[in-house]
Amino acid sequence: MPPESQTEKVLRELYGIVLRRVASGASLLCPVDMVTAFLKLCHAQSCGKCVPCRIGLGQLIAMLEDVLNGNATNATVALIENTARSIYASADCAIGFGAAEMVLNGLKGFREDYIAHIKDKQCSVQCEQGAPCMSLCPAGVEIPGYIALIAEERYADAIRLIRRDNPFPTVCGYVCEHPCEAKCRRHILDDAVNIRGLKRFAADNAGYVPPPEKYPETGKRVAVIGAGPAGLTAAYYLALMGHSVEVFEKREQLGGMLRYGIPRYRLPSDKLDNDIRAILDTGIKVRTGIEVGRDVGLDMLREEYDAIFISIGAHTDKKLKIPGTEGPDVLPAIEMLRGLGAGVHKDFTGKTVNVIGGGNVAMDAARSAMRLGARRVNIVYRRRQQDMTALPEEVEGAIAEGCDLITLCAPHSIERNAEGNIKALWVQPQLAGPIVDGRPLPIDAAEPRHRIPCDLIIVAIGQAIESENFGKARIPLDRDAICAGGDSSVLDHPGIFAGGDCVTGPATVIKAIAAGKVAAANIDEYLGFHHPIKADVDIPAPGMIKTEAWGRANMVEREAAVRKQDFEMIEEPLSGEAACLEASRCLRCDHYGYGTYWADRRRKW
Amino acid sequence: MVSKNDTGKIINVTIDGRPVKVPEGTTILHAAQSVGVFLPTLCYLKEVNDIGACRVCVVEVEGYGRLVTSCNTAVKEGMVIHTNSPQARETRRVNVELILSQHDTQCASCVRSGNCVLQTVANDLGIIYNNYKKDVPKGNWNKSFPLIRHESKCIKCMRCIQYCNNVQNIGVWDSINSGGRTTVGVSGGRSISESDCSLCGQCITHCPVGALRVRDDTDRVFEALADPDRITVVQIAPAVRVAWGETLGLNREFANVKRLVAAFRKMGFDYVFDTTFSADLTIMEEGSEFVRILTGKDKRRRPLFTSCCPGWVRFVKSHYPDMVDQLSTAKSPQQMFGAVAKTYLAELLQVDPSKIFCVSVMPCVAKKSECDLPTMRDDNGMPDVDCVLTTREIDRMIKAEHILPTQLEEEEFDDFAGIGSGAGVIFGAAGGVMEAALRSVYYLITGENPTVEAFSDVRGRNGWREATYFIKGDPIRVAVVSGLGNARKLIEALRTGEVQYDFVEVMSCPGGCAGGGGQPITPGQEKALERGESLYGIDRASSLRFSHENPEVRQMYEYYSDKPMMERVQHKLHTDHSRWHMPLSPNHK
Fold first, then answer.
1. Which residue, among B458, B472, B438, has the nearest Cα to B548 in the 3D structure?
2. Is residue B17 in a domain?
3. From the candidates B60, B181, B195, which should be mutated to test the interface with A, based on the most A CB atoms within 10 A?
4. Would you tell me how many other CB atoms lie within 10 Å of the CB of residue A229?
5. DSSP A340
6. Closest residue in B to A25 (Cα–Cα)
7. 3-state DSSP call for residue A431?
8. Which residue out of B26, B176, B184 would a mutagenesis test of the A interface target, given it has the greatest number of A Cβ atoms within 10 Å?
């Protein structure tokens, strides 16, 4: 191969820049404009041999420009569609037919926007170009603001600002899936800001930060059923709004999945307790060990309280439907994790464990099994590694700790010996099939089934919601999920609201927090109030921004061979020096770009 | 907004070689201004818009590779700033040329020529040619609506959006499209005529260029003046008299209302009257209405709201339709005058009312829509007021008529509707209607005059002021708001029971009509307060301070030999606000 020319080098770098820039693009922009822009890229990529690609793409671009400039008619759209179909049908290679397919998909996906450009001479999409991190955070936490506070070493103020939108700053500093980082504008220069790492740094260094002052008492009483992130969030804000809040929790301790689902090596108990303490310091009353529907009726609560929020989470497992699953050696993953949360450590010494599933719960179960002494842990998954829904770093962490991934294997049956003990999991090899919703469907391969020997099987193929008691109380259900509107109200049950995993099915912590926040606002309104929630924190004015490309500060993890022997925290915090540098990488999109314009519109809720 | 970290700390910076001390949180722009360095700005609007869109105010900061916008960057200790370094100068120039490449620079036929910020900035930078290809966007607009937007002139500074949203709290404008086609449009994909625009006109007076303007109706007036069969009658609103000379290069003392009367006579108007006369009439009717509510004869919900501001009436109808019945039924002074002009005055002057062309000169955009309402016509559909001109339009007419304003001699208004009290004059300032009304309400209840300055507490700078007065021992709780954002705050507080009032004055424009959307524009300056002060000065100098003492008002009531609120007069001087359609606000629940 000849050495890379200067032009090739610059182009290669350009492709990298384009990739990063595209990744950081706002979720909502004029789709016709974006397709036109991509089409220009496709046209430039064309080798120019074939007519449909060389000329057709150029004609498509011209027609799309007409649409954008208000010079098109419905006939233009018809011609765009025809042309794209012909290019798709006759282009010689993917450069051409892939481009045409993109146009055809757009005509299907946002035809109304084409029509709007033609009829109203304007785009139908309402763009909101605020700070991308804030736009992507389900709870709308003011991320650039708290990063600026961290840069000034004002950690308690950072916590206060986070708590305006999210009463779990510590928990999220440890386990948030950080959707905020996905479109961080810093990607354009180098890489996303380590937002979660900075939040954890603030939480670790703020000390105890008491909750803000409450509004005067309203005399209204609200019952919250379930003390997970959604329930405690709603309880926290409702208490701040001046309502009297009582939380009913089935288990001994508060936290829901945060305590009974997430292993301690990812979220230490004292860190969780830290957030819960501040939440309870708003004066929320807590009644643990009470299951609504069994110990106390929903109807009775409805009579006694002015409003009710149901946030019972998704705490039961989806069953594996293959022969041989009966027996104590086939363990639902969430049951095992719940035991760990309650302090019950089973002994897996010397055992071989097969974990079935590819989500975060499967990784938690596998890594916990390793810590309980298992000799060998296999993670059996019917798709490929990159198709796993678990965060890539969780998968990598499991592998580093010695778990083996056995992919493209669908569970078929469980083999037991005469005594009834598990000998192996039989699996059917799979192939990656057609892509649906971004992931290939697994299809049976022509290869014979084979056995994966083991002593124990942990099933992590999904969670279900224990909602029967609510169904009996005539709360509408969709399968096992509670039906609630976007404002979290339950249809035909005035005063009853629901949110979190029990409505959406298993989701992330930050989504549950956002659901609790939405519920609190709507319950407050239902009770006849409108208490704005603000943070009395002055956000530092942005200074000059560091625009030189600079490496992202990542957290390091304890050595795999050591950490897999205990349940102590895996991840080391950022050092003060690293946190300071990292905070200075923030581009302050709340100010620069369209930031100021949008930021002032959302500093309270 | 840049956070005002008001720690009281003093920051030392160097601007163009001069040491500067300013409080922490000060922007580079203001720090520079404090030492007499005036940077050009275009999109920046103090306390309303500091999004840094035009990149014209950029400066160089030592040690930082790129330029920074001075309007929204706070100074930091030790900063060394060069406002006019070669890089700053060149970049500023490029950015202005880029703006000009998309701007319809037909300055010769633009209403803002002479006080256009872009024109000034480009001229000051010495831009006499443009390197860029001209690419001026086109747009569609309903040219019959009183508020007109030219896409070809919009520079996307977003001031209009920010003002409407953050100050007036309506949100008629929004940023639409994305990428290179980003521009300003009516929010929610509506057309302007089906929107909840109050027509306050503040977006016009805060537009740096000619992208937003009021519908020009001067042609219709010139036509009427040229028609020998038409009898042209003009009324001059209170707030016009303290503003009309501003853009004609006259000082406020010289440019008084008597010289404006002379200008209109020169233009050929047959009769020149004073809206202050009908303001006194409004006080009599509205005051009587309030007394009826106070004494329980009228059982309507309190507070009673003034209704002389048509922008406010539009706002109530679109945002709080359930409160429309709390508006005073008394017509505004403009419409009372119109009603009187084509009946009472026609009789006195012995002319055919259908021949009268009734013009009003207003500091206001919404008045153009008010005179067009179906409820502001006689039984045959003839409008009471035929045409409304803004202060800016009459300034243009004065120029078009080659009238040398400096040569104007003072002249008096015509009889029968030419006398107005000082109370009528202060209608033009926020709080003035309330003060004028209370002076006469006191009289109507007690039969005696109060001391003239008894109710002056409602004056002042705050957008929301309140006071409680005792008349015959009974408390009267009043409030005055100006700016629709403040009006919304007050209404929300009323609705939650946080506040209780008996009588509330609302003016759409901050500072009242003195700061109206039809007033002359001086970029970067808010003149409502100083104009208002002048109105109070006219009141103080007036020998007539009470509406109920206006001899011409008394004469009119005697002519009809009826008391206020009696049926005959009521029909002409009152209106039913529910009898015309106003689009609801999209936020209305």
1. B438
2. yes
3. B181
4. 31
5. H
6. B179
7. strand
8. B176
- Residues in chain A with CB shorter than 8 Å from the CB of B72 are 591, 596
Residues of B in contact with A593 (CB under 8 A): none
According to DSSP, the residues that pair with A422 across neighbouring strands are A416
Which residues of A are less than 8 Å from B189 in CB distance? 116, 120, 122, 124
pLDDT in tens, A454-505: 999 999 999 999 999 999 999 999 999 999 999 999 999 999 999 999 999 9
Check: CB of residue B426 under 8 Å from CB of residue B432: yes
Domains assigned to chain A: 29-119 (1.20.1440.230), 133-208+539-602 (1.10.1060), 221-315+465-526 (3.50.50.60), 325-459 (3.50.50.60)
Burial B323-343 (b: 16+ CB within 10 A, else e): bbebbbbbbbbbbbbbbbbbe
Put simply, whether A538 touches B (Cβ < 8 Å) is yes
How many whole angstroms separate alpha carbon A591 and alpha carbon A605?
19
Amino acid symbol at A130: G
A593 pLDDT more than 90: no
Which residue of A lies nearest to B50 if distances are taken between CA atoms?
A596
Q: Show residues of chain B in contact with A544, CB under 8 Å.
A: 61, 64, 68, 76
Q: Which one of A29, A69, A123 would you mutate to disrupt binding with B, by most B Cβ within 10 Å of its Cβ? A: A123
Please check the confidence at residue B527 and state whether its pLDDT lies above 70: yes
Q: Dihedrals φ, ψ of A86, to 5°? A: -65, -40
Beta strands in A333-469 (DSSP E): 352-356, 376-380, 404-406, 409-416, 422-436, 439-444, 450-453, 456-459, 463-464
Using the Cβ of B179 and the Cβ atoms of chain A, whether some distance falls under 8 Å is answered with yes
Length of chain B: 589
B5: contact with A, CB 8 A cutoff: yes
Rounded Cα distance between A429 and A213, Å, is 60
Same domain, B206 and B331: no
Cα separation, A588 vs A149, in Å, equals 12
**Residues of chain B contacting residue A122, judged by C-beta atoms under 8 Å apart:** 176-177, 185, 189
The answer to whether residue B571 is domain-embedded is: yes
Query: Which residues are A288's β-sheet partners?
Result: A249
B426 in Cβ contact with B539 (< 8 Å):
yes
Give the tokens for residue A368. 């916990």
Among B235, B231, B225, B261, which Cα is nearest to B346's? B231
Query: Quick check: B74 and A596 CB within 8 A?
Result: no
Q: Which of A530, A543, A597 sits opposite B158 (nearest CB)?
A: A597
User: Is residue B561 over pLDDT 90?
Assistant: no
CB-CB neighbors (< 8 A) of A29 in chain B: 178-179
Q: Which residues of B touch A543 (CB under 8 A)?
A: 73-74, 76
CA distance A601 to chain B (A): 9
- Taking the C-alpha atoms of residue A37 and residue A258, their distance in angstroms, rounded to an integer, is 44
Q: What average pLDDT does the segment A403-417 reach?
A: 97
Any CB–CB contact under 8 A between A27 and chain B? no
| Gap between the Cα atoms of B257 and B263, Å rounded | 10
Q: Domain check: are B201 and B229 in the same one? A: no
B472 touches chain A (CB under 8 A): no
- In a domain? residue B121: no
In the prediction, which pLDDT does A1 show?
A: 79
* Closest-CA residue to B156 (of B69, B55, B73): B55
SS3 A266: coil
For chain B, positions 21-40, list CB contacts with chain A under 8 A: 25
Alpha-carbon torsion, ordered A300, A305, A306, A310, to 10 deg: -80
For the stretch B398-417, pLDDT in tens is 999 999 999 999 999 999 89
